[in-house]
Amino acid sequence: MINNGFNLFNRVKVFYATMILLLAQGISFSQTDSNQTPKQEKGVMDMSLEELMNVQVYTASKVATKIEKAPGTVYSFSGEQLLNEGVLTIQDLLLRIPGTQLVPNRSGHTNIWFRGVQNRYNNNILLIIDGVPIRDFVYGNFLIDDMVPIEQMEKIEVMIGPGSVLYGANAQAGIINITTKKHAKEIMGTASTFDTYSGSTHYSIDKLSVFFKYLETHNGFDPDKGRDGRAHIYPQDQDRQLAIFDVKYDLTDDLMLHTSRTHYEYPYTYSQYNRSQVQTRDPMTFSLNFKHGDIDEDGRLDVITYYVHYDFREDTFRVNNNLSPRSRKREYYNSDYGGFDAYYTKRIFRDHVFLFGSSLLYHRATNAESKVTDLTGPAPVTTYGTLLEDPDRSFKDYAF
Question: Across the chain, how many H-helices and E-strands are there?
Answer without folding.
Answer: 5, 22
